[in-house]
Every structure is written in structure tokens, then in C-alpha cells.
Amino acid sequence: MNVKTRLALVMTATALAATSAGTYAQDKFDKYSLKSPSGIAFSEFKGYEDWAVVSSARTDKELKVIVANPTMIKAYKAGVPGNGQPFPDGSKIAKLQWKPKKSTEAPFVVDVPDVFTQAFVIEKDSKKFPKSGGWGYALFNYEAASDKFTVDPSLSDCGHACHVAVKAKDHIFHPYQKR
Fold this sequence. Notes:
2 domains, 3 helices, 28% strand, disordered N terminus
């Protein structure tokens, strides 16, 4: 093998190694690799972007859309929690939060989502979370500047302590809204 051929092979191998390392570094920070202090992995909510809308909410600081997985939507449609039955294990709900801004396009005054800020997720697993009515809570913050999610170091923004107020509704604030 001549010097040019060896040099070309070394350069190709180096380029492939650098590309692989870059891909690994990027994958390492994928939101689905995150795990909360409560033990909930963001990967358990993969596909939440396409889940059905349960409800929406607004505070002075945030616009919120509440979505749920098919297991929970099926339970809602069967009358849970109003029928006195609890949500089944495997139910998952996510509260997606944005900072609002005034629409500059609508011909009327309306707030629309601006910067995404958080995904607050809840999952029902009676064996994994027996002390909190079977529900586990996690908060994943989004940093727009870096386009990355991070795990909130607290157990959640309010978690079980807040949801005890709606224990009679199996710890879930939002009803499935009529369509």
C-alpha cells in the first residue's frame, strides 16, 4: 500500500470516527434519555406529541395543553373518574406549557403559544408508586436557547402534594372536555 492510499484510509477512518462521536454526543442529550428523580423516564412518554387533547388551561404566566395516552383517553370515554372508577395502570397524561404572546396576525386580541417551557408528566403505576395513589410525577424543563430538555431536580412542580386535593377524581384535575 502506498503512502497516499494509507493517508486516504487514515483520513476516512478519522472522519468516520468523528462523525460517530458527534452522533453519539447528540444522541446522549436526546430528551428521551432523561430520567426524573422520581424514577420516571421521559422515554415512557414517547409519542406524547401526538396524544389526544384532554383539556387546556391558562395562568397569568402560561398556556397549558393537557394530553393523554390512548389508555387514559379510553378510560375517560368510559366515564372515569366520574363513574367512581380509578384510571387503569398504564394511564399517562402530560401537561405541556408555553409562555404566551399576543397574536400579531389575528384580527382580534388573542394569546397564542410562544416559547415552550415544560412538560409535566404523570403516569399511573400502582406497584411503582403505591404511596401516591398509584401516580408518579415528573417535570422536564425545556431550554429554548439550547433546544434541549433537562430534568427538573425537584420531584415535580407540585406532584402528589397538589393532586391530593382531587383524590376523589383519582388525583387528576382536568376532566375530558366535551367536543
